[in-house]
C-alpha cells in the first residue's frame, strides 16, 4: 500500500534516505542540551528503540560544547536543529551528520543580510563537513515575507517557502537535502506536502505533525497525516512528535515503525467524522529549548482540567519554549508558552499575562470559561 517513491536518494553519513531506501524513523532529544547526562540518556533511549537518526537542538555556544561531549559519547547519526542563530552551523558542522534550518528563523540574526547569503553560508558549511541539510518549514514560524504575500493562506505560504528554498539550495549546487513542511493540523500537513510534491517530486520528504500532543490523540493526528501521505508514495523519513515523559521518548520510534508497517500492509484506521470537533489541545513534544521540565506535567494537567469543556469547539495550545511558543499560539483560542519561572498566557495573538506554574491552571480556566461564553453568545 506504499507506492514506489519518486524522490532522489540522499545520504546522512551511511543512511540512505529517499528513492527505494527504507523509510527512516527519527526522533529528537527532549532534554536541555547543556544537561549532558540527561541528553545522553535520551540518546541511549532512542538508540535502544532503533532510531535511525537523533536530533539535538543548538542555540548557543554552551550548547555546542555540550554537543561536543555528546558526540564523543555516541556513534549514533546525529542531526542538529539550528534555532535562531544560523551561524552556529560553522561550529556544529564537524560534530553532526545533518543540519536542520528553519527558513522562518533566518531573519532573526543579521537582519540586513540577504536570506540567500545566509543559505549560502549554511550550504557551504554543510559541504565542508559532509552534512546533509533539512529545510524545515513550520507553519508556526512562517517567514515575514510569506505572511505578507499569502495572508491567511498558511498552506500556500509554507509550501511556497519550501519551494523557494529548494531553488536557493539547488542554485548553490547542493542536492543532499530533504524538506519538511509541518503543522499541528494533520489535514494541513497533507495539503501542504501534496502541493509541494506536485512541483518537486524529486525532493525527499521528512514527514511530521508538529505539536501532535499527548497519546492517544497525538498518535491519531499523526496517523491521519501519515496514512494519507505514505499511501500516495510521499514520505522518505518520519518523526512522530509526542508529549510524553522523557523516559518514554522511545515511544516515538515504536509508533513510527508501527504506522509505516500498518500502511504498508493496508491496515488503515478510520477517523470518526467528528474527530476534529470539540476541544482540541495542541502540545509540543518538548526539546532542549524547554526551560522548565514542569511543561510536560502542565500539559497533562491542562488535559485533565479541561475535560469539562470536551464538547466545546475551543483550541488550546501548550508550548514549551520562547522560540516557537509566541508564534505557534497565535491561532489558538488560548495559548500557553512556558518560561523558566512563569507561563505566558495568550488569548489568540493577545497577551493576557505571565503567571506562575502554580497559578496558571486557575487563570486558564477563567479564560476558557470566558471563551466558551463568548462563543455561545454568537452561535
Characterization of this structure:
This protein is an alpha/beta fold. The protein contains twelve helices and 15 strands. It folds into two domains: 10-264, Dihydropteroate synthase-like (TIM Barrel), CATH 3.20.20; 280-378, 2-Layer Sandwich (Sulfite Reductase Hemoprotein, domain 1), CATH 3.30.413. Helix 8 links the parallel strand 9 and strand 10 (237-239).
User: Helix proportion of residues, in percent?
Assistant: 25-40%
**What is the CATH topology descriptor of the largest domain?**
TIM Barrel
Q: What is the strand arrangement across the widest sheet?
A: 3-4-5-6-7-8-9-10
The total count of helices amounts to: 12
- Structural class based on helices, strands and sheet pairing: alpha/beta
Short description:
This protein has helices at residues 36-49, 61-73, 89-92, 115-129, 144-150, 154-171, 186-199, 217-230, 251-264, 294-305, 325-328, 360-378; strands spanning 10-12, 15-17, 24-28, 53-58, 78-82, 98-101, 132-138, 177-182, 205-207, 237-239, 280-283, 315-319, 334-338, 342-347, 350-356.
What are the SSEs and their pairings?
Blueprint: E1 10-12, E2 15-17, E3 24-28, H1 36-49, E4 53-58, H2 61-73, E5 78-82, H3 89-92, E6 98-101, H4 115-129, E7 132-138, H5 144-150, H6 154-171, E8 177-182, H7 186-199, E9 205-207, H8 217-230, E10 237-239, H9 251-264, E11 280-283, H10 294-305, E12 315-319, H11 325-328, E13 334-338, E14 342-347, E15 350-356, H12 360-378
Parallel strand pairs: 3-4, 3-10, 4-5, 5-6, 6-7, 7-8, 8-9, 9-10, 11-12, 12-13
Antiparallel strand pairs: 1-2, 13-14, 14-15
Helix pairs in contact: 5-6, 6-7, 7-8, 8-9
Amino acid at each position: 500500500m506504499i507506492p514506489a517513491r519518486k524522490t532522489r536518494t540522499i545520504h546522512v553519513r551511511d543512511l540512505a534516505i529517499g528513492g527505494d531506501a527504507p523509510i527512516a524513523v527519527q526522533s529528537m532529544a527532549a532534554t536541555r542540551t547543556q544537561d549532558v547526562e540527561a541528553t545522553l540518556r535520551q540518546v541511549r533511549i532512542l538508540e535502544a528503540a532503533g532510531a535511525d537518526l537523533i536530533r539535538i537542538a543548538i542555540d548557543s555556544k554552551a550548547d555546542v560544547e555540550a554537543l561536543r561531549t555528546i558526540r564523543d559519547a555516541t556513534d549514533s547519526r546525529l542531526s542538529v536543529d539550528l534555532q535562531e542563530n544560523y551561524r552556529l552551523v560553522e561550529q556544529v558542522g564537524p560534530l553532526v551528520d545533518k543540519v536542520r534550518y528553519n527558513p522562518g528563523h533566518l531573519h532573526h540574526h543579521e537582519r540586513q543580510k540577504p536570506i540567500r547569503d545566509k543559505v549560502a553560508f549554511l550550504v557551504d558549511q554543510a559541504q565542508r563537513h559532509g552534512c546533509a541539510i533539512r529545510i524545515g518549514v513550520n507553519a508556526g514560524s512562517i517567514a515575514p515575507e510569506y505572511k505578507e504575500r499569502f495572508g491567511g493562506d498558511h498552506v500556500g505560504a509554507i509550501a511556497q517557502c519550501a519551494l523557494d528554498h529548494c531553488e536557493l539550495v539547488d542554485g548553490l549546487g547542493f542536492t543532499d537535502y530533504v524538506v519538511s513542511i509541518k503543522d499541528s493540523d494533520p489535514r494541513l500537513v497533507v495539503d501542504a506536502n501534496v502541493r509541494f510534491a506536485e512541483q518537486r517530486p524529486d525532493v525527499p520528504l521528512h514527514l511530521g505533525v508538529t505539536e501532535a500532543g499527548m497519546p492517544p490523540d497525538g498518535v491519531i493526528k499523526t496517523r491521519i497525516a501519515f496514512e494519507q501521505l505514505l499511501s500516495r508514495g510521499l514520505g522518505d523519513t518520519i518523526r512522530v512528535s509526542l508529549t510524553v515523559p522523557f523516559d518514554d521518548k522511545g515511544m516515538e520510534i515504536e509508533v513510527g515503525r508501527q504506522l509505516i508497517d500498518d500502511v504498508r500492509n493496508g491496515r488503515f484506521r478510520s477517523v470518526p467524522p467528528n474527530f476534529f470537533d470539540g476541544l482540541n489541545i495542541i502540545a509540543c513534544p518538548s526539546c532542549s529549548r524547554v526551560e522548565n521540565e514542569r511543561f510536560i506535567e502542565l500539559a497533562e494537567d491542562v488535559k485533565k482540567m479541561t475535560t469539562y469543556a470536551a464538547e466545546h469547539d475551543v483550541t488550546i495550545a501548550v508550548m514549551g519554549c520562547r522560540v516557537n511558543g509566541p508564534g505557534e499560539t497565535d491561532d489558538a483560542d488560548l495559548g500557553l508558552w512556558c518560561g523558566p519561572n512563569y507561563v505566558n498566557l495568550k488569548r489568540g495573538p493577545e497577551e493576557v499575562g505571565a503567571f506562575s506554574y502554580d497559578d496558571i491552571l486557575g487563570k486558564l480556566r477563567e479564560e476558557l470559561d470566558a471563551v466558551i461564553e463568548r462563543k455561545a453568545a454568537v452561535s
